Amino acid sequence: MKILIIEDTQDLATGLARYLSVKNIHSELSFDGEDGLYKALTKYYDAIVLDINLPKKNGIDVCRELREKEKEVPIIMLTSRSSNDDIIAWLDCGADDYLVKPFDYDVLVARLDALTRRNLKNKSTSELHIWEFTLDLEKIEVSNNSGEDIHLSDLEFRLLKYFAQNKWRAIERQELYEKVWWEFDGDFMFSKTVDVYIGYLRKKLGREIVETKKWHWYIAN
Fold this sequence. Notes:
Layout: E1 2-6, H1 10-22, E2 26-30, H2 33-42, E3 47-51, H3 59-68, E4 75-79, H4 84-92, E5 97-100, H5 105-123, E6 127-130, E7 133-136, E8 141-144, E9 149-150, H6 154-165, E10 171-172, H7 173-181, H8 193-205, E11 210-213, E12 217-220
Parallel strand pairs: 1-2, 1-3, 3-4, 4-5
Antiparallel strand pairs: 6-7, 7-8, 8-9, 10-12, 11-12
């Protein structure tokens, strides 16, 4: 799991990140609302832990802007207040859950697990469509509009599935390794493995499937 922690109290943020790493949860940190919003819009995260009182842009505005831009990532708000009006405001802006400071780290981990499981379930479907292709997620098969089957390896299928689930979004090379390859021991910054498998898909599907931005970003056309 990869999460973004947007919290201006640096001791809290770094301490939480260290604790989460023990639970095999990778964290990135941001200490103000503007930087946090930028990271949330340009990178992939399984969830966001978002403080309310932030410099430059408060947490409610960050959450609201993410939802306006159709970012469906689960968001847990952190706050020192817990009145009914506050809770209503957090939920109205699009937050999925909240914790009142001080909070137990294990409770946060449990809520992150619950939210990410729910988010994955909501995204699941028996079929996905991308370009002229249909992916049958139960049979792990791909066919074109003419009904012709296209044989893909398991890894090629997972890669195409991930592109289909993230159409029109910039995807970092590291994200593909984490979400498609699952385990990768090399240096993703210099590996050409993603490029090789994109080449396999391009050949088997008979079309361009991504646009390279810089050298490590891909966008499903």
